[in-house]
Amino acid sequence: MMLEMLRNIVQEVNSAEGLDEALEIIVERVRNAMDTEVCSVYMRDAGSNRYIFQATRGLNANKIGRVSLAPGEGLVGLVAEREEPVNLESAESHPSFHLLEDIGEEEYHAFLGVPIIHQREVLGVLVVQQAARRRFDESDEAFLVTMSAQLAGVIAHAQVTGTVQVETLEGVAVSAKIKGIPGAPGIAIGTAVVVSPGADLYAVPRRIIKNRRAELRAFKNALAQVRTDVRLVADNLSDQLSPEDHALFDVYLGILDDSTIGAEVASLIKAGHWAQGALSKVMIEHIRHFERMEHSYLRERAVDVKDLGTRVLTYLQSEDRDERVYPAQTILVGEELTATSLGEIPREKLVGIISVKGSGNSHVAILARAMGVPTIMGAVDLPYTMLQDRELIIDGYYGLVELNPPAELKQRYQELLEQDQALSRDLESLRDLPCETLDDYRLPLYVNTGLMADVTRSLEQGAEGVGLFRTEVPFLLRERFPSEEEQRKIYREQLEAFAPRPVTMRTLDIGGDKSLPYFPIEEENPFLGWRGIRVTLDHPEIFLAQIRAMIKANEGLGNLQILLPMISNVAEVDEALELIHRSHRELAQEGFLGALPQIGVMIEVPAAVYQARALARRVDFLSVGSNDLTQYLLAVDRNNTRVADLYHSLHPAVLQALKLVADAARDEGKPVSICGELAGDPLAAVLLVGMGYDALSMNATSLPKVKQAIRKISLYEAVEVLEEVMVMDNAADVHERLEQSLSDHGLEQFIHSPVDA
Ligand code: PEP
Ligand code: MG
Questions:
Q1: Which fold is adopted by the domain 434-700?
Q2: How many alpha carbons lie under 13 Å from residue 266 in its C-beta half-sphere?
Q3: Any idea which fold 2-170 has?
């Protein structure tokens, strides 16, 4: 009962369009649910750091937005400062009590206030009051605390949505900063183009248009087309359906013919909304209306309304797609962007990407890094559907999106952008220089690839080979497993492009967050589940086809190396080796020439760190996947925005593990490289050199920076810094020391500090 009530309230608040509407729903519903006389919300204003009386039921609504309290001032301030509930039988006898003039709280004695906290920050205070001198009981307090904890995220989201909303409705530019996860480094300043994932009424971008007549016409056409479709279906099915079933189509046509829906949409279009936006707004309101009905038959009608709205939207979108023009500086924004959506935009116009879902390790992010396009992932609080045509800045170093940045901030970003551009021009001169330390210690730099598109860029940046070819990328772009011959061609192209430089191809690494559309893996804990080598050993037919394709592709070139992902025990290696040897033998019998390629194991699970020697003994080389290794060592899901702050790639535990692996490989006389994102961080380069890593593999964009950093130090110094850092016990100290080392060598430009207004 309680749970149901909580869920309903949260759901309703969730569908609010902005903060004010959200707060109105909260005060109304909480007051009723708790059967109290007063419910109010005080929201913190970031500018003044005061708690503003923002919504109420029971007190004087005329004072909304006009009175406020400082932290520590009054009971509301006390709740905010202490970050815990205050529950009093008689508010006025508490020493902190501070009467707010004219809000009409004199007659209410009992007071219960709870803080609204989101991501450690107090957003506001939720208060209930009643006249009786009677303490709210324990279950009231528990209810309000639960309510507030659940609402905090919703309120944070509504706050940003509201900010943007104000702009849409009133044409006033409001600045806002939204935090996401860094997807690809760099700064971009440009105009948002929102892509919607097929017809989704809830994901229609807001847009204001000038040509209202054309929009009206488009809407009427779409409506007429849907009407024809529905009639056609109804006719086709007429002899197969019972009269009751058939009546459904009459209901459908009734909804379409209903003059209210059509008229509402038309009037919004006349007010300047584009057809899709007007349709979505009206349909969502009607859907909500039906969903709230008590009667289940009527509630079901919500589904019909939604279906019809979606059909009309589909027609509107198909017309719109034909005439899309991209601004010169396009920032692509979408809920879940795909490789295809990137492909639709001319490369020279694409300056940035924002994906509401996903993480720095999602497919789009990997692709974007390879292309050198600054990218933000996991911007969950971004009201992305409202951003069409808005001016945005994205900071791919820190994962920040700035909406309507103030002039000064924009200027700072502009400077940073120019610095970045100048830096990459400077670094171009490094292309043909070797990556070696001042004392001539040579260390090849490789790239991570996944697509053919990466090849040119990689070679331009001076890559000496491929340290990680993520074979799952071409698999992701298809609708079924690629055949052995299709794979052979893909692999051949990579091998040829880089030959005679080495190309390390990793066997299919799916599972975790990488699922193929045609081979879905749904699990409670995908990162601890069926992924990488575990999947392919269970499906030897997939593994063998891949190995055969690789070996065939290598014929006459000989630069192939094979890498095994997600190894957590030696048996997996033994089994995989047996399959590889068998394929090679069989292919030799079929007449293919060429030696057995070098085979390596990825060290990306803590267990593999401790067994690095045993693993190294079985294969030709080791390669550390620091992305997964960090997530497993720190127990931090690499995709989860909530814990992204805890994902420290320079955590002392990670450094100890990296050192253990380097030592183990040396003891076994086997080369060891690193192919996680850490390898592309110029800060970490010093340490990796000092530990004795034989090669670093990274995204093409980072390569020149890392080369520059390594060319400025001596191996001797790298070892010294390493020794200093290895005794530090927290990541922040390590970070600071490494920044020091970069700036000692005049490489301040590689250090990115947050840009604040
Ligand atoms: C890693 O885990 O560090 C790695 C290189 O593999 P991926 O990012 O593809 O999981
Ligand atoms: Mg990995």
A1: TIM Barrel (3.20.20)
A2: 13
A3: Beta-Lactamase (3.30.450)
